[in-house]
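user: can you give me the structure for this one chain? tokens are fine.
assistant: on it. calling the predictor now.
[tool input]
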Amino acid sequence: MSKSGPREANNARRKRKATKGQREEAEIRRLQESYKKLETSSPPSPQSSFAQLPLSSATLSGLSDLGLSVPTDIQRQSLPFSLLGRDVLGAAKTGSGKTLAFLIPMLERLFVQRSAT
């Protein structure tokens, strides 16, 4: 048995990992640019779909997997502000999507800030 087999497999894994890292860095740069554009619209305008918001591909994929493509009223109104790190105070009935409106910006910030560490 040749020793080059495991070595080649390790090299392939490293290359995939590097490529994934490069894709994530490019996505983070895209998100940061999108935040800047969103911030310049004063006030940020509500969006009619999740795809119009500056969200990572992982978040968009997760929302799609759950069958969610259109934000609820509370999400549509709050996400443009909370994605920019602004404080939001909102009231809506039970089952209206408040928890998701809270979690999406938190997860997105963690993803973007990961590149700084």
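assistant: here you go. The longest helix spans residues 4-40. The two ends are 41 Å apart (CA to CA).
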